[in-house]
């Protein structure tokens, strides 16, 4: 299939394809980080994760409308404000959901799956009632929609770069929060041994709520970022849920590093296959490979070997 | 006659539950409803097959599959392939560029029937495939997963991924599968027009009959040691393993059983609705099937039947009067059942209705429940022990699920 | 002719200054007027098959998804059909009877469509159904509607390969939409190479099959053909392939949420559609879709449809005004919405031509029906139950509207089973 | 280490060079020991010495990194758990793990060594022989009056006995018990010791225990483990007087 192209053309395409893989990678990382915290660290199967992302996207939409109406001069920078709002709104809803629903189900992980699925139905219909069944168009500041021309053929999309930067910064922030801060220690203590953590004076209910809220908040930021590359509609969130869970499970549920490694592996596989095959077959093959590897190695890529 | 075990069983409390269901499905509903509504009930009942399988697989053995739609769909597709071939006679498809093959193949420039369609010309093969294909896939998945001890949440997510893969595959290979439209416009079964009211009513009764076959099969398993081991496995997998059981084999068995039930349900669905499409294979359909089971009571096979009936009836009813509210109601149902009634309808029945029954039964001391005490004749003992084991009276411990 | 009269009344409604209340009073006075003037034919004459027709009302069904993933697309059709029914009622109804509609939700689920269509035909005994959107939902309804001899008015542009006596297809079938647009791209824009891209289901695949045959016939070249699963949101790889193969035209039939991702990512990858290199020609992006994608992301693309909201003719101006008045100023109207609006009118005219609500008579009366007041201009029902209509090319503007740059001179003949394209 | 003689058919169980490591940490390190038929062997050792891991390795719950476990001449390290059980090894866990949803009778019935395949379990009939066997075991474990009780209603000690009973009914040759008297009252302890005495008439028993009093009551020989290795082995008096043992264990 590469007949008749010059070497420089091919080099450019490979460079662009590498970039495509990287930007898919950052999309996966963004999707999966919030879930890795909620599912990996807390064991809650949050099927409404996609809906939290879309809530972030709608928040961005509202923020952009507000800026257009009231602060048109600052429109270029609204996105940062929107991400903050998205985080706060989603975290607040997350905290509420944890309080009302999830905390009763910590010992029944499969039941969290059903309850959060119910939540996702309700959220979807709520979006439909509030924002209408149609997708909303989120207007982006012009500087975000362009591309940087590196060579004649190589254009790097700015929004792709931007998503990458967000993904990277959030991944680093989460890493420091979970592994380098006192709060992270508490979270891990609660995850590993709840009664013991309580015995040493950790408010485990508070930690749970904050952790769940954090995971939802990150989903919100992901949703905000996805307005740049995807659609914002009541049921857009469902498109992400299978991929997201596979990324987290494939990485080894309890390992954040594993999540990143698996996001990298899956995204590279998918984007390479997409280049050579049709989109549908690429997707099927990628999923099959992931499921196949999971069958051989159920604990995921980076599971801790624990002495039980 | 009076002493025949069958009569005795029907007079027992458990027997009465089955009688009540039979009465409802065979007499009350057909009398009350017109052919159209009865056909809808028949469609709901095809979901009950999946729900019974889920009770065995999830409620009893603790294996939550989010891919039951896959097996339902495969059973349905097998039946649909047979019916489609019957409908695609060279005369009926004369306007096609290749007459005699299903219309969607013609649209996709396929000029000969693909090899894997050929056997579906045979009705006998189709009947075997309806159960065989889902069971075979379940066997492959089961062997791969359970021998490697994949369980719980991981199993749920992997089955979900399998549902996603199959959906994309079926939609993508539309020349062979009918794509997103599915296999439509099915008319006759061995020359018998399945679209008429009479046929639909007849199919309804076939569905009810097969449903009871599956119910009794599930009940038999529950009553046997096999059923006890399934429950035991759910709570103390290691103890079962170190009591000398090959846990994986039992899990594979119950997963295949659930797949077989789902396949039967799917085939009946195709017959009663008249087409099959990939939307039954997907994740949404699969999760909805879990809620039928959860609402009815995840430990009760009878509850599962009522669950499937009620959720679907509510869905139709609600969406006729308040279409916008339906998703809210459905969502609330999920959350409510999980939070407030983890045992579903069967659990509620057990808590509120059974005490009343208890009083009724106590006035008549000559029912079988009174033989609880160790019988003096040792020959009696083996049979009588465990007779109190009722599907509805199972203890449920949510934290172990 | 009754037909012209009633549409004229419809126009007066469209221009009407305001509120629904006014509409209602208008409708009421209209009713009085008709019943006083023209004698309404007795029910026993116009309804011999047990449809839900009384001396002053007739029941029809509206069957679209208002929940689930397809609600996004189908709501516009519901709105258009309701508007048409209101206008028809305001103008005196059909054979002197007011239309009552029973609305059912297909819930984006094909069996539900089948179930609800059975309900409409068996329980509600509706005289006609306006509904379905996706091919899959139509395929699900089709056996039911043929079995119980109902009448379906189906609004969406679709893949063809179908011709049911019980369906009137008010949208375009694939050849109408595709052939003219490729000819246009070749003649006006000098296109030589094409890249075909679509969502993975029957309509894009059939459309691309027709496009490919036509391109072959013209002696030109298809340099890529590609399908993505519905709901797919990552298009970077295909964008790279497009950059590598440098087609003159990207012929796109991506649908739903994927659209948004596709156009945003194209734009971000530095492809400026206004430069027309490559030129993007779509058959799936109506004004409705642009609202979700964002006008700035599709500025410069070309769409081939039979209707654009910006069409400059008096019929359309009235229609757009009435639609906005009924459903809000921020509404946009796409091709399918307009086609859905035709349904009730075409049915009314067929009923009045037949002088009966009986489905068989309505079917017989349908071919040859002309609707001169159609927003798209003029349409006529073909023997094959599809519509004769013009095909137009629109150029997308930043404000989300299309500017019509080309229109076929003659009406395109509908050809659901195109010879040589199968 | 008097058991330095190499493999001989006389041993019921011969563990040689057994090693398992978790991510580099060797929980059991080149461990060897041998059990004679009908012996009661107690393994003691400080926390983390690898005692429970040894039982896990023998019954197949954990897979050895290297080394061999021969039981009546058959290599266990390559067998599946249920095959190990069928070859005659029974194992009781530290925390009582009985089926709380089932009655005592059913608990014992599930363990009855028949109908272990799927189809077998479907066809399994509760005949007179089964009932008699269950009743006899129930007498041994002091639960003959509680057969119809759900296991969830039993006391902690009774659950421990029930689990031992579930092992007995399998008729294993080797019974492995992990801290069988932990959490028991004084009376229950005494009864358990009695029970073990009865059991050893027909079985070889391998016990992990902390309670030195109890160890003294029952043990034929004692193996002391420390950091995954055998520190000392012999009679209770022998190990009690071994200075290495005193230093790491008894001295605390």
UniProtKB/TrEMBL annotation, chain A:
UniProt keyword terms in alphabetical order: Amino-acid transport, Cell membrane, Membrane, Transmembrane, Transmembrane helix, Transport
Coiled coil spans: none
GO CC list: plasma membrane
InterPro entries assigned to the protein according to its UniProt record, in alphabetical order: ABC_transp_permease, ABC_UrtB_bac, BCAA_transport_permease
GO molecular function annotation: transmembrane transporter activity
Localization annotation: Cell inner membrane
Pfam families membership: BPD_transp_2 (PF02653)
UniProt xrefs under CDD domains: TM_PBP1_LivH_like
Segments passing through the bilayer: 20-40, 52-71, 77-97, 109-127, 158-178, 212-233, 245-266, 273-296
Membrane disposition: Multi-pass membrane protein
An individual GO BP term: amino acid transport
Primary location group: membrane
Homology family: Belongs to the binding-protein-dependent transport system permease family. LivHM subfamily.
PANTHER family on file: ABC TRANSPORTER PERMEASE PROTEIN, BRANCHED-CHAIN AMINO ACID TRANSPORT SYSTEM PERMEASE PROTEIN LIVH
Protein name: Urea ABC transporter, permease protein UrtB
Species this chain originates from: Marinobacter excellens LAMA 842
TrEMBL record, chain B:
Chief localization: membrane
A GO term from the CC aspect: plasma membrane
Residues spanning the membrane: 15-33, 45-67, 123-146, 153-172, 202-221, 242-269, 275-294, 325-349
InterPro entries named among the record's database cross-references: ABC_transp_permease (IPR001851), ABC_transptr_urea_perm_UrtC (IPR017778), LivM-like (IPR043428)
Membrane topology note: Multi-pass membrane protein
Location of the region described as Disordered in the Swiss-Prot/TrEMBL record: 363-401
Gene Ontology molecular function, alphabetical: branched-chain amino acid transmembrane transporter activity
Annotated compartments: Cell inner membrane
Highest taxon listed in the record's lineage: Bacteria
Keyword presence, Chloroplast: no
Keywords, in A-Z order: Cell membrane, Membrane, Transmembrane, Transmembrane helix
Official protein name in the record: ABC transporter permease
Species annotation: Marinobacter nauticus
From TrEMBL, chain C:
Signal peptide: 1-38
SUPFAM superfamilies to which the protein is assigned, alphabetical: Periplasmic binding protein-like I (SSF53822)
Record-linked Pfam families: Peripla_BP_5
InterPro entries: ABC_urea-bd_UrtA, Leu_Ile_Val-bd, Peripla_BP_I
Protein source organism: Marinobacter nauticus (Marinobacter hydrocarbonoclasticus)
Listed name of the protein: Urea ABC transporter substrate-binding protein
Coiled-coil residue spans: none
Keywords of the record: Signal
GO BP term, pick one: amino acid transport
CDD domains attached to this UniProt entry: PBP1_FmdD-like
UniProtKB/TrEMBL annotation, chain D:
Domain of life, source organism: Bacteria
InterPro entries per the UniProt record, alphabetical: AAA+_ATPase, ABC_AA/LPS_Transport, ABC_transporter-like_ATP-bd, ABC_transptr_urea_ATP-bd_UrtD, BCA_ABC_TP_C, P-loop_NTPase
Keyword Membrane part of the UniProt annotation: no
Gene3D superfamilies referenced in this protein's UniProt entry, alphabetically: P-loop containing nucleotide triphosphate hydrolases
Single GO cellular component term: plasma membrane
Keyword annotations from UniProtKB, A to Z: ATP-binding, Nucleotide-binding, Transport
GO molecular function: ATP binding; ATP hydrolysis activity
Record's keyword annotation contains Nucleotide-binding: yes
ABC transporter domain residues: 13-252
Signal peptide: none
PANTHER family: CONSERVED COMPONENT OF ABC TRANSPORTER FOR NATURAL AMINO ACIDS-RELATED, HIGH-AFFINITY BRANCHED-CHAIN AMINO ACID TRANSPORT ATP-BINDING PROTEIN
Name of the protein in its database record: Urea ABC transporter, ATPase protein UrtD
Taxonomic lineage of the native organism: Bacteria, Pseudomonadati, Pseudomonadota, Gammaproteobacteria, Pseudomonadales
